[in-house]
Amino acid sequence: MRLIIMPDQHSATRLAAGEIASVINSRTKPVLGLATGRTMEGVYRHLSTFHHELGLDFSHTSSFNLDEYVGVPASDTHSYHHYMNDLLFRHVNISTHAVHLPNGMATDLNAECAAYEQAIIDHGGIDLQLLGIGDTGHIGFNEPPSPFDTRTRCVTLNARTREQNAPMFGGNPEDVPSQALTMGVGTILEARQLLLVALGSSKAEIVAEALEGKIDPQVSASAVRLHTNCTVILDKESASQLTPQTRKKADYLRK
Ligand code: GLP
To answer: Ligand 1 site: residues with CB under 6 angstroms?
Structure first.
């Protein structure tokens, strides 16, 4: 695992966008695994800037998002479909046919999950999977406990996650859907490269647990340490509870 600690959120998200851009530039048909959440807003802003100012070309890129709420239509402003269109897809030249998110409105959710797994295989697998981390230690919506061989499936969201995501639903955790479709930890670990990004002091405790605690299905983000090509990008605040030993092993980049 490569750990990089950046001075601030702007430089951390810019570096993450740069890693994604390298994958886009080095593959003939790049396949990105994308994530949502406030952490990724800066990453997508930088990617849009790279497209407009540096000509980063998304025309051959396909994408698969980690997750989507159950029962929220794509047109709803609370959906991850809407989030992705609003923050990234409409700003770059990615084809609308090349972007994939699980359909939380499907009548047969199990069939939808199986089809999603198959679509990833049909595209040759994911080159780079972008990941955030939730307060429960989840990646995607892999709430504790999520065994490391889990596949795309329907999950029940933890009360803490519904609280964490309540601000996007007007503030009331009860208004956050109780279920979601998510790639499994096993699905995520099959990506050829992982890129985990965490920002801010509110993530410091769970970041330390994921990176230094037991590798355990109770903290699905700890599974990234099993991957042979994983980069973790933190800002100073989210890295603040790591032990000095871990921090000594990190790269500190200034810009
Ligand atoms: C949601 C997503 C996760 C994401 C998490 C972090 O729960 N399903 O994939 O990592 O949000 O959110 P934020 O970046 O807003 O802290």
So the answer is: 35-39, 66-67, 132-134, 140-141, 161, 165
